[in-house]
Write a structure and sequence with these properties.
Helix content: over 70%
Mean pLDDT: 75
Low-confidence stretches: none
Largest sheet: none
Structural class: mainly alpha
Distance between the termini: 56 Å
Order of helices and strands: HHHHHHHHHHHH
Strand content: under 5%
Number of helices: 12
Radius of gyration: 71 Å
Shape: rod-shaped
Length: 559
Amino acid sequence: MTDISEKLKQYRLNSDAVKALSSFLPTLERHLDGILDRFYVHVQSWDDVPEMLKNSSGLDALKAAQKQHWVRLFQGHFDEEFLQRSAKIGEVHERVGVSPQWYIAGYNLIVDELLNLVLKTYGKDPKKAIPVCQAITSITFMDLEVAMSSFVNHSSKTHTHNAQSDFANQLMDRSVNLSMSVNEAAISNASILHAIRNVDTDTQQIAAAIEQMVMGFQTISENSTQVSRSSSEALETTHNGQDATREAVESMNEIAHAVSTAATRVDELSHASQQIGEIVESIEKIASQTNLLALNATIEAARAGEAGKGFAVVAGEVKALADQTSRATDQIRERIDNLRDEMGKIVFSMHEGTKAVANGQAVMDSVNANMNDVAGKIEAASKSMDQISAVLDEQTEAADNINSSITGIANNSKHNVEDVKSNMVAMQAVETMISEQMSTLENFEVPNRIVRIAKSDHIIWKKRLADMIAGLEGLNPDELSDHTCCRLGKWYYSDAANELKNHPAFSALEAPHERVHTLGIEAVHLYNAGDVEGALAEIAKVDEASKDVIRLLDELLAG
């Protein structure tokens, strides 16, 4: 059973009632204009009359529409279209501000007029009057119920929509502000994550460098210990050398003394040899005189003849002895001369040896002094190496502590990275909920909806760039929209923005909005090319341009 069939049954609008209405239609058409005139005169006397009922052109339109409606009712064409028309009447009355009280009161006036008309027409014939009155009552109540149901339904929707729109209007700013705050926080988190990652990388490098430094300290310390040990051994060797040098100096002194003594004795021997030479010279002179005497004796013996033969023999023997003595003295002289030559050489060598020993003593004294100096310096170097070793031990311990601290920092950096990531994941969940809420709010009639949402859009755009730097999102510059294709750009270059185009902030908005997109796309190009610093510089420019965009959007919203 259809809705109209059910309603006709409920209001007892059967064929007899439709027939009664149809039979009364000619009478109604003759009197309907007068009824409607009286109706609107009466309505205009009420307080707070809607503007539409005061306007003659509007009033004429209402009369024509109402006349057509009453004629259709009495024609008895009750179908789905009838329900739609009646529902539309209730919706229109609700939209123009006619209250249910007014509508019902007006209906009451027309029903009174219709019933009076029936009684005047069929007053003496109740059989004709009663069916028509019953049919009028049924049709008017059904029409009133459909219109009022539509009125109330539309009013409820209107009030609900208005309430929702008011709520959406209030919630829009809160959602936009929340979205901006959350995304700004997300940008900060992304920046912190990027910075912490850099710190983590630097810390790992510092930790590695310090570990190498500790190893270097340990190596230097070991070398210093070895050098100190070698210095100690060198010092001991130097002391031994000093002892040996002192012994050598003492030996040289003894040698010098011995050489000096020997040189003295050789000088004495040379003097004795000279005296021997003098004695040999005397002997030589005696032998020469003896030889001369023997020659003279021989001559005298020869003169003596036979008597001198014995003397001649003696003289010959003397001469032979003198010759032998002469030869012996010659040999002695030769040997003494040789001895004196050798003794001269020995004396010269002794003097040279004495000089050499003296020079050796001077050298050994210098060596001893140098050894003492070397020993002092080695001892000082050894003490310095001991001090260096002690300092290196302290530095190694300090470096170990620093390394432990750096390792702790590195571990904390890793934990911080994970914490920030967890925070960002939670923030992303909040961002998703806010985004869903913003999408829902877009369905409501909220003043300056696009302008308000655009504020959030620009912070989200900055966040995507920050996420890119933090390694949380990869962006393809070829897939990014320019300033004409984003939500704000589509609105800006459309007729929807006409009512704000005369605002000073509107024309000023285009340039910074274009820079936000152009600089952001350039930042993506630089980042993808590996130039992180260049990308960060462009993002900083995006931030400045975005602040101008937000400021100008606020000025547009302020009116």
